[in-house]
Amino acid sequence: MDVNNEKSNRLRLDYTGMMKNIFNPQGWTKEKLAAMQPQLTEAHNSLRIQREQGGLDFSKLLTEMECLLPSLVEYANELTCNFDNFVILGIGGSALGPLAIQQALNPYYYNELCLSQNPKRPRLYVVDNIDPDRFTDLLRVIDLEKTIFNVITKSGATSETMAQFMIIRDILRQNCGDDYTKHIVVTTDKEKGNLVPMIRAEGYRSWIIPAGIGGRFSELTPVGLLPAAVCGIDVYGLLQGALEMDKWIRESESVLTNPAQLSAVLSYLAWQEGKNISVFMPYADSLKTFSDWYAQLWAESLGKRVNRQGKEVFTGQTPVKALGVTDQHSQVQLYTEGPADKVVTFLTIEKFSSDCLIPYDKSLPDDIKFLGGHSLGELLQAEQNATEYALSLAKRQHRKIILPVLNACTVGQLLLLLMWETAYMGELLDINTFNQPGVEEGKIGTFALMGREGFETRKHEIEEYAKTFYVLE
Amino acid sequence: MDVNNEKSNRLRLDYTGMMKNIFNPQGWTKEKLAAMQPQLTEAHNSLRIQREQGGLDFSKLLTEMECLLPSLVEYANELTCNFDNFVILGIGGSALGPLAIQQALNPYYYNELCLSQNPKRPRLYVVDNIDPDRFTDLLRVIDLEKTIFNVITKSGATSETMAQFMIIRDILRQNCGDDYTKHIVVTTDKEKGNLVPMIRAEGYRSWIIPAGIGGRFSELTPVGLLPAAVCGIDVYGLLQGALEMDKWIRESESVLTNPAQLSAVLSYLAWQEGKNISVFMPYADSLKTFSDWYAQLWAESLGKRVNRQGKEVFTGQTPVKALGVTDQHSQVQLYTEGPADKVVTFLTIEKFSSDCLIPYDKSLPDDIKFLGGHSLGELLQAEQNATEYALSLAKRQHRKIILPVLNACTVGQLLLLLMWETAYMGELLDINTFNQPGVEEGKIGTFALMGREGFETRKHEIEEYAKTFYVLE
């Protein structure tokens, strides 16, 4: 790879807004960050050992995933010839990653444009809920004969995805006869789970989710790579960017050179100082759904009742999704004047692919005439800088991830940066970053309420609980 | 109106999850709520007086808005004959309300379905940002000849909207000649602002935003009613529902009978007990963007530095948008196991318009077979109840707004309930609910950075500030 190109594509972190400055004398100093180095070095070593001993597959298997690309892209290209619609049945990480990457790297109105692309690309639908009205509407807009469904669930036991799949399988059988299996591609575990015997018995095409990668870390496996390839996204670039960031992080040992250490320590110190809210605020419509992916990663990884010693800690910053400049007219009033309970992370793109000039009209009043002769991109940039400035004036902490351009390589870097930041943060908090024990109760409750055998006691308990109620009607 | 129908359409509030129960002995009692009655009565009287003296136009002008409907619907129907696309240029309240109502009351894939509707309806695009890539993409998917642009800004000084408008006006002039004014309809103040002389000089069709109604309270003015009518939404039903809820709230004097008093006091007590996060979690895809509308209302109204005596209070709960069941696989881990720093407000629809049966297949393993014979709607309901139960088990507070069905009338009620809850909450906090002084600094900063005359000092200041910086690259 061209060294200059690599350099010009590289993400930067601007953490000025976290530090002591003329407006915010309570901001931090480099010494304060450096004082965290022993803890960070411990985290760094712990993560290195975990990776060597078989953990952290989101990083470790990147090269293996890269080797998968030729066959995956070949298959994706086959699909684009045969189908007009690619429908994902999945929820959580199986939906959020594909959605984020699609919006980041394809046109905003992709589904409306895709049939006129060259080569032609299928429309993408990500059905990440079980809302019956939406499901019914979906069936009104797709032609089943021209649709392939990608069922994504590692365990094959995700109620929502399996319910969708059972409905779709039935409809396909009725409409497409024996050929119905050609309309289904499964992304699941290699050996375990409910879908493995079904793949064997019914003959679906399938792709593997590596055993050691959980939903929220799975975007750079076939979970995300297959839909991206189908929609014409440069999956090689994604992995190249991911590998670059992975290398940078694993090889830098100090907080001021390692972007994940730096990000994590900024988050950790803010959390220690009582900032329980983390606002993620890209200044680009294309990164809006990236916030949803980040919100799962941050919330599910760090929201934990106990630490690794089993002590109750009730930890976890709450991620908040915002969008610049849109939410300046919605949330920034609160961010500047409300409580100092949050840190804002801006995401900015230095150079957009296109721009629109605002025409100059001397007959207009002063408070709009000044816009003329500038471009939308300049206005967006000015507003982003002005918002940073307003937050600084209000002594509110903020930081910024800068993408020189938005492309597969920078998005790949961003994915890995945030995954690693989360891993370091988990180490600093001394928790298990990779499990999600708290969702179990909800699952058991659902089994009980749906009348699954063996869950009668829980059903009775819920009914008892529901007997006391307070309703205003 | 049919009394039974009115009753069956009426919203209900279930606040069991806030109260003392078998799982949460720290929950509240009715006595605790009743003890707040003096403050609530004071708030009730204060709001009544403000309304009598010319404030609270969001409530006071509902009848006037209802009178506007025949002419507004007539105009909307004209547009549907002449145009295939209705594009809103607006930001903040000018975009969030129209988006929320469109998603709530029209099919999920409306834009893909609308040309086959009977009567034919225009596609709706809400351009609520100045991202140059998205703006360029928009121009690729719409046929200008068949497009009408609705410019929405009360002051005519909103930089983002006016920048968009200036670009579009220029393009229309080039493409449509003298007829270009037919492609523009303006929603703005009656007398003040930049757009009034332009309407006179260039001859645009226009609709009025009443002077006393700010952006986040403007959905039931032509801001929201015109797009809704164009998209075939029952605007009469919206206002009917709004008027019903308005009456209920104004005529009920006590916390246990007045839904806005009750909602506000639940929020207020939670805030007093340190819960600085308010999660808004509808269990319906159709209400997803309603959360964005709510987030502006709550954040911008209540996020305030000073109270009405000018004392610094730095108040304001941070609204968080979540979606059931989707975010059970993203946020609920944090909500159950993380800190007790939030209250979750669920929104549920008792009866969806459609449903899908999950087929039963006895060959499937137990952990998915149990789904068979139930419907998606049942599964969604069970999961919502199970999540409530899981939160209760974890001693986390939650409440629920129940919509018997989702229609224009219940959505109208919901709008007014949340507006009034916000107004009561502002009274309890003793702040000005209706201003947004904190956005000024950002505006001034933008003027400075865009080189507007008269803002040179600020520009210099920002440049000075930017001289100290910390960047990792």
Question: How does this model look, in words?
Answer:
- Two copies of one chain form a homodimer.
- By secondary structure, chain A is α/β, with parallel strands linked by helices.
- Chain A folds into two domains: 3-52 and 237-429, Rossmann fold (3-Layer(aba) Sandwich); 57-236, Glucose-6-phosphate isomerase like protein, domain 1 (Rossmann fold, 3-Layer(aba) Sandwich).
- In chain A, 48% of the residues lie in helices and 14% in strands.
- Chain A has 20 helices and 13 strands.
- Chain A has helices at residues 3-9, 30-34, 37-52, 57-60, 62-82, 93-105, 110-113, 132-141, 159-176, 195-202, 222-230, 235-251, 259-272, 290-302, 332-337, 366-369, 376-393, 408-429, 440-449, 456-465, and strands at 12-14, 85-89, 123-127, 147-152, 184-188, 205-208, 277-282, 304-306, 312-315, 318-321, 342-351, 398-405, 471-472.
- In chain A, the strands form three sheets. Chain A has a five-stranded mixed beta sheet, sandwiched between helices. A five-stranded parallel beta sheet of chain A has the order 3-2-4-5-6, with helices on both faces. In chain A, strands 8-9 form a two-stranded antiparallel ribbon.
- In chain A, helix 10 links the parallel strand 5 and strand 6 (205-208).
- In chain A, helix 6 (93-105) runs antiparallel to helix 14 (290-302).
- The N and C termini of chain A lie far apart (66 Å).
- Strand 1 (12-14) of chain A pairs antiparallel with strand 13 of chain B.
